[in-house]
């Protein structure tokens, strides 16, 4: 582990006495959870007992809503693997400028500094072009100039400066790029010639009369002292580096860059300050040490955004594999998983995280399964989106679990239709049974059905669970009875019992429903049907003692039950008699 | 279909609505409102589209709609309508049940206005009727539905139509005193939840709904209890369906699958209107060949209410340049269309029919 470059700040938590109680803590993606325990240092045997929980949100400027665009654009590119193009860079640039303004507007200096370091962190996103295999044709220095100009914001403000605006036009005409017919050696010769001319002018004291022109000449010769005199115009050491290279060694090769970089850094800082973490990142980049870059970034930046995308890009360019780290082939996935987990901790960026998990072949699916169940669902619309994501990836377990939670909430809120709708979506027969039982219980208590619009219109969903089918058919029985189609009602009622879809607990109700049919003037139940009804009644009464418990209330119920059973037996017997007579006589069928 | 401009706005957009123009006005739409969702702080924002200046050098990433003003909102914004009002009704929708605490609020999912009346529906299955100048609700229908009511629209003035999550349309007449709907229509087959509804601007018996399976259904509320046509459209939930208010031969739908479709049922023969109902004819399901996108699945094609099969064609165009995250909302007014997505972008076009 690297050494810290500063003392960590101490935060006192109000209400916690760290001398008396030990605290325990754990990291989350963007927070830290701290609990006070009653674990006593002296008494090792006492158990942990959590008393208070404190949640600290870590300051994460990269989650600021102005940076959303950066996340979105990276997500867009990540999914489509578009090459780093000017379009992409300019969007990043726009983000950076906005962040810069936020940094300036930040209330306290500490957060302002954090913002600006994050802004500069974002500038390093174009390190990718520095890597040789990604470079289009052309000298290295031009790309460095480009980079400085585009991504070091402050350069823009130095518009009338010699080091700024004059160079590009002069430089480009010098290089004569469009044709690019000259080789590097030819260019070197040309430059050498020009450099010697400058030196001659200086030695001849041509500019002796004008100190400004003289220092200008020295600058153009790449004299470090002269350049450092203009330090306040150079915003940072890499600006100094590029300027220095421009005038002292424009045909620098990538392999030599690191030496110039190191010396530029040392000269610029001049022993006054130590390199910041971002400087270490750049140094590692100039050394083309990819793993060092990733390591430094991981330490310095508070967020996996940059590292994850950089590593992914490098992996696609096949640059990571050339290095032999024992977890090298999984480093990309590890970083992407960390970044995606961070996205899931955010209230609205979780949708982007899904795609990132999709691109992690080994642990992506499992991670997604764990995360997606834990997204807080405040509205049905959000739940529907989450469910759609799960269904698209055949995550049936998660669909079932989320629907179950929603259905349970609906039942508690007395929204039985919603509960049923969720169980249908999850094809959850068990929950459909639960909802149906609830309807049946309501019917028994109130004597009528609630939510007829639902039960009458179940459609094919009725087949989801036996109980639901029973509910639908039972309601149909009532409807048919209401239409006075007694024969149909009778056979429906009987089939409900004989087909075993009616729960035992409901048989008594069904038999009681049969009573008015048995008491009708005309014979409705045939002898055969009556026998079956009697069979059902005997099945029911023989099994009954098992369900009873010792209770005075139960004794009263027992009496009611016994009376009912006797009435039924009487009615059934009478109906049987009439049926036999009718069937035996000439009119019977 | 000419250019459609996108602007990234750093908030997921749940609703977009054009500001209504005075009737008979010849102007084109200029202002629209958006509502965001899923952020810690959500905003209702008003945007204006100015003149089309030069395209940004990036081309395609920067739109030209400018934020006029916004206001913070606690909670996700589920629906937007424009009305002049200075009231807040904070406890319009709530749950009461054996398991819920004594007061637990429920999301309000839909709202529709017909100055000065406002009707709201919510996840609690409740329908509220407010008037802009009354503090309390004028009428409340508790437990209007045992499932969630997803959307509401006016049918004829005292009648509204709601759709719910068990595939039913219910018509409610506020002139009647009871708490029962005057009519119930439901889907055939699976009772897939219906998410959106819109009524034909000229023919008040023609209604279009969009379902959770992306199916577009056309209904005739005067006839029968089943939809007249079913068109397999999107691959995921259809969030909004709109008839074009002045060109009702055109229908627009947007969906969770990231696409926005323009359905054009007008034929080459200008004088033939496909939207008159031929009395007494029952609808038949027919299939046609359709010119257009390869990724359009069509199992059943018909015009809004089927007329002459030989002449009916529906052209379907996908309006967004590339697949994005869910398109949550759209609105059309004259030649202008606006839509908002979960990819935190607002798309605007002013040349729908070019």
Explained architecture:
The complex is a heterodimer of chains A (589) and B (354). Chain A is mainly α. Chain A folds into four domains: 22-57, no CATH class; 92-157 and 184-345, no CATH class; 381-473, no CATH class; 484-542 and 554-588. Chain A has 27 helices and three strands. In chain A, helix 24 packs antiparallel against helix 25. Chain A is elongated. Mean pLDDT of chain A is 74; it is low at 82-86, 122-137 and 153-181. Chain B has a domain at 106-267 and 303-349: Methylamine Dehydrogenase, Chain H. Chain B has strands spanning 5-8, 12-18, 31-37, 42-49, 65-73, 94-95, 104-105, 108-114, 117-122, 127-131, 139-141, 149-154, 159-164, 168-173, 183-186, 194-199, 206-211, 215-220, 229-232, 238-243, 250-255, 260-264, 315-318, 327-333, 336-341, 345-349. A four-stranded antiparallel β-sheet of chain B has the order 1-26-25-24, with no helix packed on it. Chain B has a four-stranded antiparallel β-sheet with strand order 2-3-4-5, with no helix packed on it. Chain B is globular and about 50 Å long. The N and C termini of chain B lie close together (6 Å). Residues 52-63, 269-303 and 307-311 of chain B have low confidence and may be disordered. At the A-B interface, helix 1, helix 2, helix 18 and helix 20 of A face loops of B.
């Amino acid at each position: 582990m690297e050494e810290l470059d500063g003392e960590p700040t101490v935060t006192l938590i109000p209400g916690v006495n760290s001398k008396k109680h030990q605290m325990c803590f754990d990291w989350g993606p963007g927070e830290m959870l701290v609990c006070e325990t009653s674990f006593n240092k002296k008494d090792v045997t006492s158990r942990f007992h959590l008393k208070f929980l404190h949640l600290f949100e870590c300051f994460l400027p990269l989650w600021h809503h102005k940076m959303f665009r950066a996340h979105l654009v990276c997500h867009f590119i990540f999914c489509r693997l578009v090459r780093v193009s000017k379009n992409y860079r300019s969007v990043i640039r726009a983000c950076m400028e906005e962040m810069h303004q936020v940094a300036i507007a930040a209330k306290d200096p500490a957060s302002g500094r954090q913002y600006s370091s994050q802004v500069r962190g974002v500038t390093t996103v174009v390190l990718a072009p520095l890597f040789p295999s990604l470079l289009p044709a052309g000298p290295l220095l031009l790309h460095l100039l480009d980079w400085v100009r585009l991504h070091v914001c402050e350069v823009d403000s130095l518009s009338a400066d010699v080091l700024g605006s004059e160079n590009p036009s002069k430089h480009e005409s010098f290089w004569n790029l469009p044709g690019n017919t000259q080789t590097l050696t030819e260019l070197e010769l040309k430059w050498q010639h020009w450099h010697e001319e400058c030196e001659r002018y200086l030695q001849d004291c041509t500019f002796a009369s004008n100190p400004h022109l003289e220092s200008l000449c020295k600058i153009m010769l790449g004299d470090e002292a002269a350049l450092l005199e203009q330090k306040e115009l150079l915003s940072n050491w890499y600006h100094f580096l590029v300027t220095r290279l421009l005038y002292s060694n424009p045909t620098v090769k990538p392999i030599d860059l690191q030496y110039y970089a190191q010396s530029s850094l040392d000269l610029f800082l001049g022993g006054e300050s130590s390199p910041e973490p971002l400087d270490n990142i750049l140094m590692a980049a100039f050394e083309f040490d990819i793993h060092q870059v990733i390591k430094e970034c991981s330490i310095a930046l508070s967020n996996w955004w940059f590292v994850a995308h950089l590593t992914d890009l490098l992996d696609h360019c096949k640059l990571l594999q050339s290095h032999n780290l024992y977890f090298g082939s999984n480093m990309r996935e590890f970083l992407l998983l960390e970044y995606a987990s961070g996205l899931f901790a955010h209230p609205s960026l979780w949708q982007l995280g899904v795609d990132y998990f999709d691109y992690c072949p080994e642990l992506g699916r499992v991670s997604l399964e764990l995360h997606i169940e834990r997204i807080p669902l405040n509205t049905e619309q959000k739940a529907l989106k989450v469910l759609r994501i799960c269904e698209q990836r055949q995550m049936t377990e998660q669909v079932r679990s989320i629907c179950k939670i929603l259905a349970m909430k609906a039942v508690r809120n007395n929204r039985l239709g919603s509960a049923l709708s969720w169980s249908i979506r999850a094809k959850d027969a068990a929950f459909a049974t639960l909802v149906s039982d609830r309807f049946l219980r309501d019917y028994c208590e109130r004597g009528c059905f609630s939510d007829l619009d639902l039960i009458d219109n179940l459609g094919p969903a009725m087949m989801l669970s036996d109980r639901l089918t029973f509910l639908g058919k039972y309601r149909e029985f009532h409807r048919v009875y209401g239409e006075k189609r007694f024969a149909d009602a009778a056979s429906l009622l009987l089939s409900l019992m004989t087909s075993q879809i009616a729960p035992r607990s409901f048989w008594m109700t069904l038999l009681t429903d049969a009573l008015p049919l048995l008491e009708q003037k005309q014979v409705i139940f045939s002898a055969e049907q009556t026998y079956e009804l009697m069979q059902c009644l005997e099945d029911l009464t023989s099994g009954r003692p098992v369900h009873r418990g010792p209770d005075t209330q139960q004794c009263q119920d027992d009496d009611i039950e016994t009376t009912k059973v006797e009435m039924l037996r009487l009615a059934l017997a009478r109906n049987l008699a009439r049926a036999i007579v009718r069937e035996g006589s000439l009119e019977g069928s | 279909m000419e250019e459609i401009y996108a602007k990234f706005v750093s908030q997921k957009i749940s609703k977009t609505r054009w500001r209504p123009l005075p009737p008979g006005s010849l102007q084109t739409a200029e202002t629209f409102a958006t509502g965001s969702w899923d952020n810690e702080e959500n905003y209702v924002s008003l945007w204006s589209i100015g003149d089309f200046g030069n395209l940004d050098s990036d081309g395609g990433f920067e739109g030209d709609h400018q934020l006029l003003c916004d206001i913070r909102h606690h909670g996700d914004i589920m629906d937007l309508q424009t009305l002049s009002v200075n009231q807040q009704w904070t406890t319009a929708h709530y749950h009461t049940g054996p398991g819920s605490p004594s007061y637990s609020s429920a999301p309000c999912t839909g709202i529709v206005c017909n100055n000065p009346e406002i009707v709201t529906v919510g996840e609690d299955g409740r329908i509220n009727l407010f008037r802009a100048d009354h503090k309390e609700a004028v009428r409340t229908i508790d437990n209007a539905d045992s499932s969630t009511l997803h959307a509401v629209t006016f049918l004829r003035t005292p009648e509204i139509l709601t759709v719910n999550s068990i595939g039913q349309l219910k018509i409610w007449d506020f002139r009647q005193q009871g708490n029962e709907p005057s009519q119930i229509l439901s889907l055939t087959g699976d009772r897939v939840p219906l998410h959106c509804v819109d009524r034909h601007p000229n023919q008040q018996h023609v209604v279009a709904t969009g379902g959770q399976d992306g199916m577009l259904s056309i209904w005739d509320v005067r006839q029968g209890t089943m939809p007249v046509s079913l068109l397999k459209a999107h691959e995921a939930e259809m969030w909004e369906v709109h008839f074009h208010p002045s060109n009702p031969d055109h229908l627009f739908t947007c969906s969770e699958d990231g696409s926005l479709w323009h359905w054009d049922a007008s034929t080459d023969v200008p004088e033939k209107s496909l939207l008159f109902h031929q009395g007494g004819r029952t609808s038949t399901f027919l299939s046609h060949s359709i010119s257009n996108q390869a990724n359009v699945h069509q199992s059943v094609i018909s015009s809004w209410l089927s007329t002459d099969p030989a002449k009916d064609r529906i052209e379907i165009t996908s309006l967004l340049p590339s697949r994005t995250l869910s398109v949550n909302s759209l609105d059309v007014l004259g030649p202008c269309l606006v839509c908002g997505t979960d990819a935190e972008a607002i798309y605007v076009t002013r040349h729908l029919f070019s």
